[in-house]
Amino acid sequence: MSYNRFDNFKARVAGDRQWNPATSNLFGINILIPNATFLAKIGISGSELDESLNFLAQEVTLPSRQLTTMETRTFGTMIRHVSGTTFSEITMSFLLTKDMWCRLFFERWMNYITDDASSFVMIPADYKAILRISKWENGSNVILRRKNSEGRVVGSTRMKTCTGNWMLEGAFPFNISTMTLNNEETTLLKTDVSFYYDRYRFDNVGSGSISGLKGDDKYVDDINSLDTLVGSWNSQLGATLGNLQYE
Question: DSSP E strands: which ranges in 50-183?
Fold first, then answer.
């Protein structure tokens, strides 16, 4: 009898959160600008930047990794050896507001890198940023409970869990897409921004104490306790991904 039966797959998915199919929505982005002078010039704080870009981000392509090879052949069959690693560019699509803030932010970032009036170029440490993409899923093992004044549970919410993190170091925008205006049926205006980066690290946040899928349910009775739990996960995740340094 074949093991690959639908009933076996259905039972595995129903009994183990880690086997639930991943979805293409529910994601967040964070851009850590290293230069405070740059943020001051565009008149926005780091926290406001993260919140605004998360609201407006509509789509993001995740980075890919490819090994480059070199070929050798003395005689007979050609043999390939690994010579290095290359990474793909990524693109983010943002919904534009009526004040065009998002477009203006990336225009000023690129103009800060190199002023097209003087053609001077800033040093990389002043314009390269850390870009973090987080993938979220429904159905974590953390449940936030609501209690009344008598201490009785009157409701609960199963929280979402972060299942994947991509940390891109040395990221900067190199292209802002064209936008088309017309007098036809009204649609929402979006802009695409493409990024280069030096390298990236990925962690699936799927094991140990930082997992939101494994283990028994964790009941949390107030927001402060939830913040403490999430902070603990973030610090452990940072230790996992924190080995990125400029060389």
Answer: 57-60, 65-72, 79-87, 90-95, 129-137, 142-147, 153-158, 161-176
CA separation, residue 97 to residues 100, 104, 182 (Å): 5, 11, 17
The pLDDT mean for the chain works out to: 79
Question: For residues 58 and 189, is the Cβ–Cβ distance under 8 A?
Answer: no
Say how far apart CA 224 and CA 205 lie, in whole Å. Answer: 22
Q: What is the CATH number of domain 24-72+81-138+163-209?
A: 2.30.110
pLDDT above 70 coverage of the chain, percent: 74
From 142, 157, 153, select the one nearest 218 (Cα to Cα).
142
Tokens linked to 160:
């979402």
| pLDDT on residue 23 | 84
Q: CA–CA distance from 112 to each of 9, 27, 43, 106, 107 (Å)?
A: 53, 28, 14, 10, 9
Tell me how far apart the alpha carbons of residues 49 and 79 are, in angstroms, rounded to a whole number.
49
pTM to 2 decimal places: 0.77
Which of 82-86, 184-188, 238-242 is predicted with the least confidence, judged by mean pLDDT?
Answer: 238-242
Q: Compute the distance between CA of residue 125 and CA of residue 128 in angstroms, rounded to an integer.
A: 6
Q: Where do the structural domains in the chain lie, given as residue ranges? A: 24-72+81-138+163-209
pLDDT in tens, 6-27: 777 777 766 666 777 888 888 9
> Closest Cα to residue 84, out of 182, 2, 179, 199?
199
